[in-house]
UniProtKB/TrEMBL annotation:
Coiled coil: none annotated. GO terms for cellular component: cytoplasm. It comes from Ferranicluibacter rubi. Transmembrane segments: none annotated. It holds the Pfam family Epimerase. GO terms for molecular function: aldehyde dehydrogenase (NAD+) activity. This is NAD-dependent epimerase/dehydratase family protein. Residues 3-229 form the NAD-dependent epimerase/dehydratase domain. It comes from the Bacteria.
Length: 299
């Protein structure tokens, strides 16, 4: 299968590209600059891709599928990623995305997967399980543009252009040349700075990429025009640092743990019914151990 991946050099995009390559698929990396060295383990074809609605369209020719992982935002921020330009943020991430969806369909791509977010659910009562059957109620502009883009893609679904939405939670995992999601947290802890707990749902990038491939290859009747939650663990800074403490023998105190029962988990039964099996605690522990090794080697 030949797959065009937008945002290919971003965190999620890199996990998706590497997973597709490892499974023997051909990748076209949608990038903003074709002169920049690519960070992938194997050579890939590139095509210029921008969310600017006036930019030239990428080369979808010969692609069987499109994975849309690109997102225009202020560096390091998703919620609040509009900065001081909410109109441009919406124009790029809704209008620009719709333009790419339409181009993929026009080029006879057979599948399209859009990387959305749990932010489309907005604020729900404490501890409620987030299900794909819930009516989205985003309150942040980030969640609103993701929901708008979801609806734009759904309107293009057909027997010949099978669309699917992947609503991801936070993504963690080591990538060469990029800081880990919890790297600054870990460095601050090792340095003895005061810590406060924070709870959230997380999924490893490799598991998210495996979910993308499932939606590209599963029976169209099971995935077409449907949304799928992608989440693995309900974890916290306390949990991360507890693992780090064991890996580094650091003696600094851990933050006081928060009550996790007040945070909403995501129901992933729909994705698991397709055969998705995330790495759970074993992958989490291995990842923090690898982060600890990186930090110790830098000292």
């Amino acid at each position: 299968m030949r797959v065009l991946v937008s945002g290919a050099t971003g965190i999620v995009g890199r996990f998706v590209v590497e997973h597709l390559l490892a499974q023997g698929h051909e990748v076209v990396a949608g990038v903003r600059d074709v002169t920049t060295a690519l960070p992938f383990s194997q050579p890939v074809e590139t095509t210029l891709l921008s969310l600017d609605p006036t930019a030239p369209l990428p080369a979808f020719d010969g692609c069987d599928a499109f994975v849309h992982a690109a997102f225009q935002h202020v560096p390091g921020r998703y919620r609040g990623g509009e900065g001081d330009d909410p109109d441009g943020f919406r124009r790029a991430n809704v209008g620009g995305s719709l333009r790419l969806f339409e181009a993929a369909k026009q080029a006879d791509a057979r599948r399209c997967v859009f990387l959305s977010s749990r932010a489309v659910y907005g604020r729900q009562p404490a501890g409620v399980l987030l299900s794909e059957d819930m009516e989205p109620a985003p309150e942040s502009l980030y969640g609103i543009v993701k929901w708008d883009a979801e609806q734009a893609l759904a309107a293009l679904h057909s027997d010949n252009f099978v669309t699917a939405i992947l609503r991801s939670t936070g993504v963690y995992g080591l990538l060469p040349g990029l800081p880990h999601k919890w790297e600054m947290l870990a460095r601050d802890y090792i340095a003895g700075r005061p810590m406060e707990d924070r709870v959230g749902t997380e999924v490893h990038g490799d598991d998210l990429a495996a979910a993308v491939l499932l939606l590209l290859t599963a029976d169209a009747a099971l995935v077409g025009n449907r949304a799928f939650n992608a989440s693995d663990l309900l974890t916290s800074h306390h949990d991360v640092l507890s693992e780090l403490q064991q890996a580094t023998a650091c003696i600094h105190p851990l933050p006081e743990p928060l009550n996790k029962s007040l945070f909403s988990r995501m129901d992933t039964a729909r994705l698991r019914s397709l055969g998705w099996h995330p790495g759970r605690n074993a992958r989490f522990r291995a990842d923090i151990a690898a982060l600890a090794e990186r930090l110790m080697s830098d000292r």
